[in-house]
Amino acid sequence: MMTGTSKNQRVIIFGVRRSGNHALTNWLTNAAEECESTLTPQPSTLSLAHCFLSPSGKVVHLNELNELDFRSTWKLFKEARKWTRKCSILIISFEDIRPSEYANFRRLSGKEIHIQRSALEVISSRYHNINQKAQKGIGWSRQTCDAYFLETLRQLHFKGDHSAAQWNYNLWLKDAKWRSNFLKQLDLSHDQMPAHSSVGGGSSFHGTSGKIESDLSSRLRKVQPSEPWKLFLENMMETETDLFSEAEKDACREFLSE
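RESULT FIELD:
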């Protein structure tokens, strides 16, 4: 097959931007390499800019294939064949699209993973990022919080395929036993948390410093500009209430009352 050989394990990942896509791929890379590792881009051509390799070649990551048209995707598979036919794990990832829209990739033998993360964390990161770009005069649609994004987030959170593994970013951060059980689904065991990825700019609030904004109330207060954010968030609480847990709703009520 163009995507590899029958000997490697294929992992197909679906998640929205700012939900931990690169945290997951880097963690799986550490597990496969059994040490702290990195994924290095191969930018010799435009297509190969979507191809990342681990140091030993055990892991190949084809990143954000949803950004490539059919011809570019075919070219990527062809050019990356020299690596994919030798690797142990081939990761293919899609961001901000629904699994149902990429049925051909879902037919590949392998493990499908859907990323879940606190909806309020994801939305606050995206809102903050697009406004930071706007203040610099940069138009940026990659992290919008529009109706398509919200429905995609809803599907990944509540309407996931039961055959897909659900990777929960929040549980992954704090629960070693949960991480161990998840790795077993992929016949992996080495649990080593990765460094912040520079792909995508790292954390929305702390970049690649390694710091994580884990306190939800603090996160809400750091989003800028604050007044439009409060109006946006108030609307979200009214129109998209099913996306948020009770803890998230409580944090929003406290923040909006300040």
